[in-house]
Structure formats: C-alpha cells, structure tokens
Amino acid sequence: MKVVCPLHIEYICRHCRQKIGEVRRPDWSLADAEARLGVSEWTEAERLDSIRMNPSGTMQVYTVCDYCHHAAKENPELLVEGKLLQ
Ligand SMILES: [Zn+2]
Predict the structure, then answer these.
(1) CB under 8 Å to 75, separation ≥6 — which residues?
(2) Ligand 1 centroid vs 66 CA: distance in angstroms?
(3) Which residues make beta-bridge pairs with 62?
(4) Which of 56, 66, 75, 76 measures 20 to 30 Å from 84, CA to CA?
(5) How far apart are CA 27 and CA 5, in angstroms?
C-alpha cells in the first residue's frame, strides 16, 4: 500500500480510543516506521489487530494508554470484551 507523505502515525488507546500521540516523519517510509515500532517482531495477527491504515493514509497504531494500563492491572474485571467500562 502506498503511503501519502508525510508519513503520519497516530497512537490510539484500544480501550478508551484516546489519542495518545502522533508522529509525522516525512523522511520515513512505511518500512522505517514499522522498524521503529518493532512490527517485524509481531505476529501477523498482532499486526492486523494493532495497525490500521485509514483512508487518508494515516497509520493508526492501537496500543494501551497509561490510564487503561493501570486500570486494567488493578481492576481486570473492568475489562469486558476488550472494552474498559468507565
Ligand atoms: Zn485508554
């Protein structure tokens, strides 16, 4: 898939959908971005689950924000089918 320049990566919490951060690197190719993210060590399933390309060419990386990370650790029962009840 061709990526629109500049390469734009958004990090989004998979639980609360909050945008955690973003990176714009005109000098990166998609391969560079994947290398930085460590994607090459991920399984195909993890890759499909965690990375989405949206129609405008933004690469969205689904991860877990600090808040949800701590909340899930302290209250694992709050996690219902991957969604955190707040
Ligand atoms: Zn979160």
Answers:
(1) none
(2) 7
(3) 12
(4) 56
(5) 9
**pLDDT band of 21, cuts 50, 70, 90:** very high
Tokens of 5: 């320049």
Question: Is there a contact between 20 and 65 (Cβ–Cβ < 8 Å)?
Answer: yes
Q: What is the mean pLDDT of residues 17-46?
A: 89
Query: How many angstroms separate the CA atoms of 81 and 3, rounded?
Result: 32
pTM for this entry = 0.72
* pLDDT for residue 13 is more than 60: yes
Distance 40 CA to ligand 1 centre (A): 25
Give the C-alpha separation, 58 to 6, whole Å. Answer: 9
- Locate the domains of the chain by residue range: 7-84
Task: Calculate how far, in angstroms, residue 83's C-alpha sits from the geometric centre of ligand 1.
Answer: 9
